[in-house]
């Protein structure tokens, strides 16, 4: 029988300790590491911080999806890790400090070289060429270790995006995946099927690793897809589960898995949850070697299918089992049956939840601007500038402007040369959908801030009024 040699993608990761003076006594008990990683600097000029603090959320992920081992994964809504990153003058320039770890586990190392969030932050700093600013990082774990839900990738994704956000989004998401891969290579292996969807959201196909080539797969907006995630009280470390994989596979299994992987991609693009489930359940290479290592997994899969799931497999390296369905109500019943099977056959307690596909990926939760005011202050200021400018040009002042019209006006103002940082444009337009322009309010925390806001608002109104007069005069001349 013909066989194929099986090798998981691998790539060495190297870090170099700088020859520098010892850290100040303040940090003698906390590990710091200068920004040195094997990735390359991608920007020509070191960027200045746009924010002094950002908080980022990165979602859980389901990797492999059966036959998509190491090249297909997706993000799951509602579960994940948070990273809070701050510009910290007390941290030596070019270094990152992990100051606190909270959440589902606190036994992770605070040494950035040994922590997935720290490694990703360092790699991103290297890509940005950060040498003049020190950063401190807090990690809140929402995902348990060894759960099969991309715990390490969620931390790495949140850290990489946090560094990029704090310096004004100079890197695109595909570049941030490279930073996250530095972390994954150190912690669980050089594979992107967790880190890519954690950063980019949705389904992501890894077409190639050298060079990295990522293909986002868009699940149709008008179709529903739910994941039933059942996590037993059992730890399955990724390195241990990867060690169980076969080094050779029969040609017939290679052909079978290839066809099922192709069906997976087609199902995602067509929004066909039934076909997706069938393909997801059909792995003949990885799942058969890992399932016996997770007590009760085979019975759990059988219970899910009998309860009406379209498909079921191991999420990532396990031990979480994932089933696919197109309605949340069905998912709850399927989850109960899967929990019962884990206890009955595997003697393992477990918890079930039903989650939708996360189409966004790692994102900004909150931030503080480099001027020390919350970001909604600056967003509101920009909104007021645009509002007053267009009002000065003759738009109604009674609130008679729709959200859609507002977004169009905002977009036109960008095209017209309004000086607004690219990182702010997205936030402004997003705010425009959620805030009616005539109801913009600014939350003021102190008397000092009240004075600053009043002065800024007065200056904005004066400037926009002058702009309005200029526009009116130009229009008047053209009409003559």
UniProtKB/TrEMBL annotation:
MF-aspect GO terms: ATP binding; homoserine kinase activity
Classification via Pfam families: GHMP_kinases_C, GHMP_kinases_N
Pathway: Amino-acid biosynthesis; L-threonine biosynthesis; L-threonine from L-aspartate: step 4/5
UniProt domain GHMP kinase N-terminal: residue ranges: 123-202
GO biological process, one term: threonine biosynthetic process
Keyword field: Amino-acid biosynthesis, ATP-binding, Kinase, Nucleotide-binding, Threonine biosynthesis, Transferase
Xref: HAMAP family: Homoser_kinase
Protein name: Homoserine kinase
């Amino acid at each position: 029988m013909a066989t194929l040699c099986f090798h998981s993608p691998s790539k060495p990761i190297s870090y170099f300790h700088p020859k520098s003076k010892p850290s100040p006594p303040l940090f003698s008990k906390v590990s710091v590491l200068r920004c040195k990683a094997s990735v390359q600097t991608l920007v020509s000029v070191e960027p200045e911080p746009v924010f002094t603090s950002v908080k980022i959320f990165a979602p859980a992920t389901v990797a492999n999806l059966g036959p998509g081992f190491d090249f297909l994964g997706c993000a799951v809504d509602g579960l994940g890790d948070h990273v809070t990153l701050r510009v910290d003058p007390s941290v030596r320039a070019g270094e990152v400090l992990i100051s606190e770890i909270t959440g589902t586990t606190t036994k992770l190392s605070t040494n950035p070289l040994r922590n997935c969030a720290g490694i990703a932050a360092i790699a991103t700093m290297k890509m940005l060429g950060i040498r003049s600013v020190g950063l401190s990082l807090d990690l809140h774990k929402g995902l348990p270790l060894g759960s099969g839900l991309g715990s390490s990738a969620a931390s790495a994704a949140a850290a990489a995006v946090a560094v990029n956000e704090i310096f004004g989004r100079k890197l695109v998401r595909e570049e941030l995946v490279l930073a996250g891969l530095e972390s994954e290579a150190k912690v669980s292996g050089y594979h992107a099927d967790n880190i890519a969807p954690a950063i980019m959201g949705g389904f992501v196909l890894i077409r190639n690793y050298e060079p990295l080539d990522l293909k986002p797969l868009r699940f149709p907006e008008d179709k529903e897809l739910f994941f039933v995630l059942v996590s037993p009280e059992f730890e399955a470390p990724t390195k241990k589960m990867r060690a169980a994989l076969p080094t050779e596979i029969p040609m017939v299994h290679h052909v079978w898995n290839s066809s099922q992987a192709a069906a997976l991609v087609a199902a995602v693009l067509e929004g066909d949850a039934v076909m997706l489930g069938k393909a997801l359940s059909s792995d003949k290479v990885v799942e058969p070697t890992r399932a016996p290592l997770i007590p009760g997994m085979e019975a759990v899969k059988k219970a899910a299918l009998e309860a009406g799931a379209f498909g079921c497999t191991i999420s990532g390296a396990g031990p979480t089992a994932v089933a696919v369905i197109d309605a949340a109500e069905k998912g709850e019943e399927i989850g109960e049956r899967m929990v019962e099977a884990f206890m009955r056959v595997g003697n393992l307690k477990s918890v079930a939840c039903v989650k939708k596909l996360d189409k966004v990926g790692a994102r900004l939760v909150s931030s503080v601007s480099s001027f020390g005011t919350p970001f909604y202050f600056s967003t509101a200021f920009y909104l007021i500038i645009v509002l007053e400018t267009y009002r000065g040009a003759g738009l109604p002042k009674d609130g008679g402007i729709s959200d859609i019209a507002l977004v169009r006006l905002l977009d036109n103002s960008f095209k017209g040369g309004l000086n607004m940082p690219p990182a702010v444009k997205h936030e402004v337009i997003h705010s425009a959908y959620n805030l009616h322009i005539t109801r913009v309010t600014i939350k003021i925390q102190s008397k000092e801030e009240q004075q600053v806001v009043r002065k800024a608002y007065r200056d904005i109104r004066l400037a926009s009024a002058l702009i309005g007069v200029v526009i009116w005069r130009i229009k008047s001349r053209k009409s003559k």
